[in-house]
Write a structure and sequence with these properties.
Two copies of one chain form a homodimer. Chain A is about 35% helix and about 15% strand. Chain A is α/β, with parallel strands linked by helices. In chain A, strand 7, helix 9 and strand 8 form a beta-alpha-beta unit. The longest helix of chain A has 18 residues. Chains A, B: It holds the Pfam family TPP_enzyme_N.
């Protein structure tokens, strides 16, 4: 048994059964071990950001980490933008990063780099395994770290000789520490805050947005009259008919402060006090009103559902009906010219039960939520780290995790280009993903941001940095070049027809919406 | 004048007149300043690795740094793989990385990350500018650092309020330290080594591979009988008819040791003692014979041409004719089925004078050199850091640097996918680049590497990690999707015809060679 064998067996035994991989020479023994060990599914990505984003999506849908397989420092670096998003989302990932043989590093050959230094800003746990005999145990610790609530990035660096050297044991993964239950004091404080007669808001994030936790929040709302609000972006929000309906804190500062206006008591459960995504001259960073008192019930890594259950019990709300449950109701199929509302309606009208929506629609999709509030139950995944290039890779991982569910990945054209290689993996694995590209042929968000930072009326050189229209991208051709069929639509009738067809079939399909 | 204005003006004044940019919100004041300040050319990339690779190519062809413009930590992370390649190549780059406003960082919003931590493994110089008043001076120091021989990666982090706040001065860039001249001792030692009667080799790298330095090396060879050899990979090698012909140390360990066999005296000028790219079980890391004495004449950051001039003078070789000058001779145009030699012949037969060859042909191109040795004078650029995804971005930068020269970018299909977005920038800027993709539909190198590490006969899961044939990539469609015309060729007649046509026109064009 090689060190690589011992590691792959340890991973499989520890419940890590999918590898999103982009290997190179230094990982060849590990690749050879994948042949010998049963139980690991390997999914190849043509760019490492596809692998890390896929591992993020996989974790969000399974609450179990996948592994990545990355080629030394630069391979890890290419994965880092989506590792950043995963870290902010509280997703657990076990990164396996190849390294030169221990004795070879000192020769500083082309691929030599400070791999631990590269990993640290994006990881909770980093270790270079020193020998083939330690690899299994280090792998087990990596799994444990990755599974630590709500999920962490664990990076295990594997020098080639520790992969090809001899090993004897397969390691047992120690159980991760249980998420913290709410303290009685925190529950009492939250109950007081929501019953002191002032306008209150229960702000939810993380696993407080799963269906059962939402139901508890709805009961608390019934009992106390508080608003229930979701954070601006969320790793996984369960919504649709029969579930407590949640809106998110808007991205635009003025809209966010309007939503939060008048709130005097805010109770946080899995969410942080709302802050502006970016700073803008003369605008606040913190979005809650100045006289709002903020009380923390549970952090994102705590047991948020237990916290809500305890709070509901404290309030005597466990048997109350939940407020804000969405009635089953789809919008009519839209027709005519493309409008933002029309896009939201097309989604609400066609999405199947149990769909997984991966939302990187940026400016286009900000108003989509109401149109699918009464659609059949589904999950909605946001970008938590703000690094674009998130949508297609996360869809890959969600589809690998949930082969029986339709994944709908909505992506702005600018965002889609960062990790466009994900389409190939969708074709290779025949993943059931409908990719919808909103082609406004610009980094549309930057036009408004340019004004927001106090620099309106951009001149030609600035405009040139914001536009993607010269040359025009053709996403249908790009998709076909990677083995994914697709079509372009110019109006809502075309979009609805295409979406209906796509929802009724299995396998990847791309729809480019010309805005 | 804002801090951003002061920085852009400082860059232009300091000779940094091209920005390879992928901006976001936090960089909007900088983008606005680009409108107001004359003299900066902005080139947009749809992925940050295109920007950093382009800056690498630009430096290699101009010996002057370009700037990048990157969006916070994740934007920088996406640039890092090609920054790694640039760092190993000794290319100077001024990275401008946006950051949240200083007072906003503590709120740990989605895009907050440890930007300095991300930059450090890939940079020689890193600084976060603290105020709008310091930005200009920090920018000047970044230019100075980037211009320090042979070229360094300088990363200036620009919090948004330091860009939008007031500034008063444009800073003067201090001159970079002059590269070190050779010491008399080093020259004497090198002269002794090459004249002691033992078989000698002069191993060249860095700027020792420019035409004048090569001529000096050829004179030294005439006088001493030593071999003149190039390092395995080189930032920029000047070659072709009338220049001293250079071969490179092969990638494959057995081939490399065969080339170096019998060498008893090795003199290094801008190169390091040859080491294997990767470690392999039972194979050496150091490739020179055990009894070979290694003498360092000049490091890559030293003045290599002056070192060779001093050595030639010491040897009385300045007036000697240079050995090994390549005669003008092109191969015949090849025809028939695709062969590796035939590909090299097609290149040698069609490349125009002053071509810039960006070589990321990986396994396919290892034997190309002899067929273009007598072609008209040209530059040949290798990947120095081993991170694939180098070829198309570096071609972008070389073409921006040298608008009157044809750039030929030869890329393996696996490599091309990492930074395929570069094609769009080629179309947008109408860059004179002929991209040649070698489609063997696999990570071909990994097949041999799998055997080399002692794991032959891969099984289905391993093979699945090495093959790109399911689905087949179609690079002509991919190129068209990004506005670049192209064609697929199935034999050498088709290739030669396409290449001749491509060499005779201006603007980007892609040829996919079906292997």
């Amino acid at each position: 048994m090689t060190g690589a064998d011992s590691l792959v067996r340890t991973l499989v035994k520890g419940g890590v059964t999918v590898s999103f991989a982009n290997p190179g020479t230094s990982e060849m023994h590990y690749v050879a071990a994948l042949d010998r060990v049963q139980g690991m599914r390997c999914v190849l990505g043509l760019f490492e950001g596809v692998c890390s984003g896929a591992a993020d999506g996989y974790y969000r849908m399974t609450d179990m980490p996948a592994a990545t397989l990355l080629h030394l420092g630069p391979g890890l670096a290419n994965a880092c933008a989506n590792l950043h998003n995963a870290k902010k989302a509280g997703s657990g990932i076990v990164n396996i990063v190849g390294e030169h043989a221990t004795y070879h590093i000192k020769f500083d050959t082309p691929l030599t780099a400070d791999i631990e230094g590269i990993a640290k800003p994006f990881s909770h746990w980093v270790k270079t395994s020193p020998t083939s005999k330690t690899v299994a145990k280090d792998g087990a610790h990596a799994i444990q770290a990755a599974r630590t609530s709500p999920g962490q990035i664990a990076t295990l660096i594997l020098p080639a000789d520790t992969a090809w050297g001899a090993a004897h044991e397969v390691a047992e993964t120690p159980p991760p520490p249980a998420p913290q239950k709410p303290s009685a004091d925190a529950v009492t404080a939250a109950a007081k805050a929501l019953t002191n007669g002032e306008p209150g808001m229960l702000l939810l994030g993380g696993r407080a947005l799963r269906a059962r936790a939402l139901e508890l929040a709805g009961k608390i709302a019934t009992k106390t009259g508080c608003k229930v609000q979701g954070a601006g972006a969320n790793a996984r929000l369960q919504r649709g008919a029969g579930r407590v309906q949640i809106s998110r804190v808007p991205f635009v500062v003025e809209q966010a402060t309007a939503v939060l206006k008048g709130t005097r008591q805010m109770v946080l459960c899995g969410a942080r006090q709302p802050a502006a995504f970016f700073a803008y001259p003369g605008k606040p960073s913190i979005l809650t009103p100045e006289d709002c008192v903020v009380t923390k019930l549970a952090d994102v890594e705590d047991d948020c559902e237990a916290a809500l259950e305890a709070l509901a019990a404290e309030l005597g709300a466990l048997d109350a009906p939940a407020a804000g449950i969405a009635a089953a109701k789809r919008p009519d199929k839209p027709s005519g010219k493309i409008t933002l509302d029309g896009l939201g309606m097309a989604l609400g009208a066609t999405m199947p039960e149990n769909a997984i929506v991966v939302d990187e629609s940026v400016t286009t999709g900000r108003g989509f939520f109401p149109f699918s509030a009464g659609a059949p139950p589904h999950d909605w995944l946001n970008n938590m780290g703000g690094s674009i290039g998130f949508g297609a890779p996360v869809a890959v991982g969600a589809a690998v995790a949930c082969p029986d569910r339709k994944v709908i990945s909505m992506i702005g054209d600018g965002s889609a280009m960062y990790t466009v290689q994900a389409l190939w993996t969708m074709a290779r694995e025949n993943l059931d993903v409908c990719v919808i590209i909103f082609s406004n042929r610009s980094y549309q968000i930057l036009y408004s941001q340019l004004a927001d930072v106090g620099a309106p009326n951009p001149g030609p050189r600035a405009i040139d940095m914001l536009t993607l229209d010269r040359p025009a991208l053709d996403f249908v051709k790009l998709a076909k070049g990677m083995g994914v069929e697709g079509a372009r639509v110019e109006d809502l009738d075309g979009l609805t027809k295409q979406m209906q067809w796509a929802m009724g079939q299995k396998g990847p399909y791309l729809i480019e919406v010309m805005m």
